[in-house]
From TrEMBL, chains A, B:
GO biological process terms held by the UniProt record: pantothenate biosynthetic process
Lineage: Bacteria, Pseudomonadati, Pseudomonadota, Gammaproteobacteria, Pseudomonadales
Molecular-function GO terms, alphabetical: 2-dehydropantoate 2-reductase activity
EC numbers on record: 1.1.1.169
Keyword NADP annotated: yes
Purpose: Catalyzes the NADPH-dependent reduction of ketopantoate into pantoic acid.
Pathway: Cofactor biosynthesis; (R)-pantothenate biosynthesis; (R)-pantoate from 3-methyl-2-oxobutanoate: step 2/2
Transmembrane segments: 12-31
Highest taxon listed in the record's lineage: Bacteria
Family, similarity comment: Belongs to the ketopantoate reductase family.
A GO cellular component entry from the record: cytoplasm
Record's protein name: 2-dehydropantoate 2-reductase
Keywords tagged on the record: Membrane, NADP, Oxidoreductase, Pantothenate biosynthesis, Transmembrane, Transmembrane helix
Length: 320, 320
């Protein structure tokens, strides 16, 4: 007979497209998953979660352990934070409330330094990790998620009670195993900051230009001017990473550019945020990388121009 | 008794806001002015030209010497070209047709190098000059023009039969006198290329951003991010001018930025072109300055990013 292995209890903080997708996959794999929601609490409580996936088919979770407040959640061993970085100030109390002692908090977010602000307000006993999601997924309605492609979550240790080396490695691998069990690719990363810079090579051009030019990837990859602009922005991210001590793999930007040209048409998350009147994730994707590179003596002028233009758009829209 | 002084005959090539305004002012000052029109020929023939000016009041020219073809125009001593730079390929035959021997052709256009392409196809006997219009004016309907503020036309000699020095100076001063007679400020400039760079300090940020951010000067000057972007773009124009051998006056960009903040709300010409589905003047205002600066070893990365974004917008719109 098989041993009884206690699976860790998982909490999802922010059940949007990212939190909803991974939470549903983990629940279907047999984990005990608890979902914190805000505006969609009653819809998900009543109707469950649904993922319409071009990879896995139509998936649903009928009976969702949904909560409108973290006060009602049981203590979780792993907390997956799928909230937008623009809401990070608000999630710390929920994380602290829902965390078991020595829980692992995994930030499934884009951008640079998203763990730093949170770390300052978390108890020292909690492990903080960053996860980079390579996935094309977006919310289509309350509790309804469309999954177009990919799905990998690469994980790195940020800070917490684990000493350097082996202990950290064990925790990261425990996180990767969590996803593997649910059929999701996951790789342990030894340098989270470097991995975040690497992901910015894609996010900086495509997220911002999708809003600025109101265009998805196919038109952006079809026009000679947007192609040159994308390449110019990518080159600046590579320079910024280099200045911050992270030499990215030779030809990485060129490869990513080429792959995007062959992807099915895709609207980046910032375009969805824009269309659905959510604040744009400008701090994590633009302001922090600009500040980090500048502090290291590297200006990124095209990225700076793009950032200012997006900040104007974001502010105008919310003022109007 | 006063001497009879033969006033020069003036032809207006392209009777939009600029051509219509200056042509009307010259006609009201007693010059014999002939207007070449395309789509608005019949409206202007029947109803005349009207300028609604916040400086001069309501002005009209009831009986307009209007032409649908340059073939029908009498030979003119001065030709004022008010057509958009995007139509410069088409205006050369009209200019040649309407020009008296040794006529002076004055390009009332923004941007860099707008005279160069035309020079190549003009007879050597024609004088070619550039005029920079410091004016807030736009077309509101067929033959109808709104004039918000300013009006000066600064003139420089580009090329032609006049030898260096005194002869050129005389011709430029003859042009300035033409405008003075009509109550319009006009200064002779000794270096047209330098003056065009100087004007780009305004046109590069405000024209492009008015389209990219869909905003007039007041909102652009009210937001901290657009302010920083405008100043960054201005600084690059000053660097580009410097690289091309034109040191602009100390503090010029700062002064222009400040003045714009105190101006009444204004939509630059490129925004009008955008709204009215005309091609954008990207070649003269962006591509040529970028190429000239790059050839002189100066990259202007924020301007390059802005240019690529605008070119994408211009092409998408015309394709759609």
């Amino acid at each position: 007979m098989s041993e009884i292995i206690k699976k860790p209890r998982v909490g999802i903080i922010g059940t949007g497209a990212i939190g909803g997708f991974y939470g549903l996959m983990l629940a279907r794999a047999g984990y005990d998953v608890h979902f914190l929601l805000r505006s969609e609490f009653s819809a998900v409580s009543q109707n469950g979660l649904r993922v319409d996936s071009q990879v896995h088919g139509a998936l649903s979770l009928e009976s969702v352990q949904a909560y409108a407040s973290a006060d009602d959640m049981p203590a979780c061993d792993w907390l997956l934070v799928g909230a937008k970085t623009t809401g990070n100030n608000g999630v710390a109390p929920a994380i602290i409330q829902a965390a078991a002692p020595n829980a692992k908090v995994l930030m499934l977010q884009n951008g640079l330094g998203v763990e730093d602000d949170l770390r300052a307000v978390l108890p020292d006993s909690l492990h903080l990790l960053g996860g980079l999601c390579f996935i094309c997924v977006h919310r289509t309605g309350p509790g309804q998620i469309a999954h177009q492609a990919f799905g990998a979550v690469n994980i790195g240790y940020h800070s917490g009670p684990a000493a350097e080396g082996a202990t950290r490695q064990n925790i990261v691998e425990e996180g990767a195993a969590l996803f593997h069990t649910a059929g999701i690719e996951s790789v342990a990363m030894d340098n989270l900051d470097r991995a975040r810079w690497q992901k910015l090579v894609w996010n900086v051009p495509y997220n911002g230009l999708s809003v600025l030019l109101n265009a998805s990837t196919t038109p952006l990859m079809a026009d000679p001017d947007s192609r040159e602009l994308i390449q110019g922005l990518m080159a600046e991210v590579v320079q910024g990473a280099e200045a911050c001590g992270h030499t990215l793999p030779e030809g990485y930007a060129e490869q990513l550019f080429k792959v995007t040209g062959h992807m099915p048409d895709y609207r980046p998350s910032m375009h969805h945020d824009f269309v659905e009147h959510r604040p744009l994730e400008l701090e994590a994707i633009y302001a922090k990388p600009l500040a980090a590179a500048l502090a290291a003596g590297c200006d990124m002028p095209k990225i700076r121009a793009l950032y200012h233009a997006l900040a104007f758009i974001d502010r105008s829209r919310r003022g109007g």
